[in-house]
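Ticket #4471: structure output looks truncated?

Reporter: J.K.
Steps to reproduce: submitted the chain below (257 residues) through the standard prediction queue, then opened the result file.
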Amino acid sequence: MSLATALILAAAPVTELPAEAVPAAAEAAASAGGELNYLQLMLHASLPVQLIVLLMLFGSVVSWVIIFRKNRVFARANDEADEFEGRFWSGVDLTQLYRAATDRNRVVSGLEAIFEAGFREYARLRQKKGLDSRTQLEGAQRAMRATFAREVDRLEHNLELLANIGSTAPYVGLVGTVFGIMVTMHGLSTEQSASIAAVAPGISEALFATAIGLFVAIPAVWAYNRFATRVERLSVRYESFAEEFSSILQRQSHVEE
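Returned output as attached by the reporter:
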């Protein structure tokens, strides 16, 4: 081909597709887009990808169960703390509060459990002869610290599992992505010619595993951060109450002396 011929061909206008070919191409594209079914994508994925996706879906169910349960636990803990502080600072007699806390028909927790443990130990040590007020107060403080630790541990229960699910799910999904690409590349090695139609299913299942990993991780990480903050706030509230109650017991012991 001469240089003049090449220039003539390059300058020639590009011929558009026939009018009847445009709707056909659009229809084919729409059909191809409509075939993206996540269930079918999962069923036709390779076995390693299927196992990894099922593992992540199980982790998602576990994390959502923990999220709903812990949300109820924290809501109840806040309500109980508000209710007990209202009774405690209303001027009611401490002995009457202690009798209500030791009622066998009730299970106390949170601030009321800390109060019950401190007042019980304080009353027990007061009955012993030869113990000064400082020893009585230290005993009550030790009892409150032990109960405080148990209450915080109860609030933190299962948060570690939630954090593990949130931190590992993206990496597990990445493992599924690697397996999906490996299977796709291995399948292409036996083909005479590679095309986008041959590569697309494997790439789709690989990206599907990554998407599932993020779907599992994002709610778990968000919930863990939120619950960790609520644990910290409640622990500060419990500790502040224990300090204030210790001051009340100290003043009471000095008055009785």
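Triage note (M.O.): checked the attachment and the full token line is present. The radius of gyration is 34 Å.
Status: closed, working as intended.
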